[in-house]
TrEMBL record:
One of its GO terms (molecular function) is phosphoribosylanthranilate isomerase activity. The gene is trpF. It comes from Terrihalobacillus insolitus. It holds the Pfam family PRAI. Pathway: Amino-acid biosynthesis; L-tryptophan biosynthesis; L-tryptophan from chorismate: step 3/5. GO terms for biological process: L-tryptophan biosynthetic process. CDD domains: PRAI (cd00405). This is N-(5'-phosphoribosyl)anthranilate isomerase. It catalyses: N-(5-phospho-beta-D-ribosyl)anthranilate = 1-(2-carboxyphenylamino)-1-deoxy-D-ribulose 5-phosphate.
């Protein structure tokens, strides 16, 4: 299970997430209370080891600006949370994670037009695109068989519900921001707990699949 800790603003939070097993670190460059500059992100990125991937979050950002920020910071993925078209995504010279807000199964239809590395399924937009701390109906993901292995689940996740979310949606990864914060700032204890529960849930699912195969063989 890939675990992404998003909205990182400090070296301390980044180091803690990495030390506890995070697979991806997210920097927000869109309008948000977690927004940071490319210079700040570059400084943090320098302490992130190569096996942990760096993700930049953008909302309707011009392509030239995305390229500039990605090159400055050394991003591995570009995450698009706005109204970007399939053609725009294809023009981004980095692996793309395209975010979609989910309210009903009809919201999945648009995904068919995109050819992205991952699809991030998030709760409906609030004040900002993403990071609003609310969950959607995870059972809706059963309508997404055509992108199996490419789904990252987001929206309202925390250490208390991430194992249930993984069991219901069977995603490739999980993404958390507000769910590991206290009073709007990253909480190191919550980061530890979230990563532990997400990784533990993956082990439980693997054991269950193995037992099912034994019983049917």
């Amino acid at each position: 299970m890939q675990v992404k800790i998003c909205g990182i603003k400090t070296i301390e939070a980044a180091q803690h997430a990495v030390q506890n097993g995070a697979d991806l670190i997210g920097f927000v460059f869109a309008k948000s209370k977690r927004r940071i500059t490319k210079e700040q992100a570059k400084e943090i990125a320098q302490i992130i080891p190569g096996h942990v991937k760096k993700v930049g979050v953008f909302v309707n950002e011009p392509l030239d600006s995305i390229k500039d920020i990605a090159a400055t910071v050394g991003l591995d993925y570009v995450q698009l949370h706005g109204d970007e078209t399939p053609e725009f995504c294809d023009a981004v010279p980095y692996p793309v994670i395209k975010a979609f807000s989910i309210q009903s199964k009809e919201d999945f239809y648009a995904i068919r037009d995109y050819k992205c590395t991952y699809f991030l399924l998030d709760s409906p937009s609030g004040k900002y695109r993403g990071g609003n701390g609310t969950a959607f109906d995870w059972s809706l993901t059963k309508h997404l068989s055509n992108v199996k292995g490419k789904v990252i689940l987001a929206g309202g996740l925390s250490s208390e519900n991430v194992s249930q979310a993984i069991a219901e949606a069977n995603p490739q990864g999980v993404d958390v921001s507000s769910g590991v914060e206290t009073d709007g700032e990253k909480d190191l204890n919550k980061i530890t707990a979230f990563i532990r529960e997400a990784k533990k849930a993956t082990t439980i699912e693997k054991d269950r699949d193995h037992n099912d195969k034994l019983h049917t063989s």
